[in-house]
Amino acid sequence: MPLTKTCVIERVGSLDDVYRALDAQLGLPPHFGRNLDALFDSLANDVEGPFAIEWRDTAAARAALGAPLFDSLIDLLREVADERDDVTLRLEP
Predict the structure, then answer these.
(1) CA distance 92 to 47
(2) Which of 7, 16, 29, 45 could cross-link with 25 by S-S, CB 3.0 to 4.6 Å?
(3) pLDDT tens for each residue of 15-53
(4) Number of structural domains in the chain
(5) What is residue 78's DSSP assignment?
(6) CB of 84 closer than 8 Å to CB of 39
């Protein structure tokens, strides 16, 4: 099995920060539409695995993004990890 790529998300102040981290470290496809539906589709179908997403400082990110958006992102990432055998998600407070 190939080595797992790890995407570290930290110091999040906006949704664009999350998109930039994922794109820079995992290589989102050129057609990525910069919305949550497109993010799910890209991570679930387009990004080659295996990969891990490690989100650090989640409490600060939740405060910066607001609870509804942060919770939606976490739900999305968990769903991708549940659907794909080659994706892991680690959340750090």
Answers:
(1) 23
(2) 7
(3) 999 999 999 999 999 999 999 999 999 999 999 999 999
(4) 1
(5) H
(6) no
